[in-house]
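Each record in this resource describes a single protein on a pair of labelled lines. With that in mind, the following record should read easily:

===
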Amino acid sequence: MAHIIPTRRCNLSCTYCNEYDDFSKPVPTDVMVSRINRLADLGTSILTLSGGEPMLHPDLDELIAAMRRRGVLAAMITNGYLLTPERVRRLNRAGLDWMQISIDNVMPDDVSKKSLKVLDKKLQILAEHAEFDVNINSVVGGGTHNPDDALVVGKRATELGFSATVGIIHDGDGQLRPLGQREREVYHQMKAMENRHFARLNFFQEAIAQGLPNQWRCRAGARYMYICEDGLVHYCSQQRGYPAKPLDEYTREDIRREYLTEKSCAPYCTVSCVHYVSYFDFFRGKQTSRTEVPEHQQPLVNITKSGK
């Protein structure tokens, strides 16, 4: 699995997000297609367009079609603001397989404008026109004002025939804190909605919800890669800078090396897509080397003995 960035620019500015700016130009289409082909050559099965906001790329449909020509499942993470009936039909024609929209609250606030009030009409458009799978991800954790919003969002998603998942986010200061009592209750109620979706595998979040570390073998750089707008391979969106090797120069030897490399940031990792693909190797492939991610790039965890 790989995430690839067609543009860093976004039309929103959520306070907890460190993955966007408001000025970057889109990556040229021919460069993006070349990167897609390179990832296919390396054996990528699922390729997700992320950002920034990928729908700001002027040739998004061509990028999706390029994935499908190589037999790669085409996915996209979007804030949903730019969806219209015609835009959804174009995504159908291009061959999009899967879309995820994260909705952070019911009413927009100072943390996020990705609210159900703003996006509900967009969800109705998807329900009527989309021929691809849609997942709606709600959140609990730092920065969210009302944990019950996640339940409202999840129930609305299932009403419209979409899958519903829940994620745990850090706050605007990058702090990852254990969930409070009501947040944990909402989290477990949301997990019950996930039984039709592959994300039910993310039992790693049980530990995160309590502020506890996970012992697992992160396969970032091998089974999962994050390709930034500059065409560099990184472990994930939160660890940009490692190994930071150009995709054009990335080989199967790099994949084998990173497969066996233990990442010091893994115990408190919240990047669910890396966990998903690493499940394939949960009991095999003992990691024999180690990468020390600098302290300023590691998740900040604020936990007292009482868990509060």
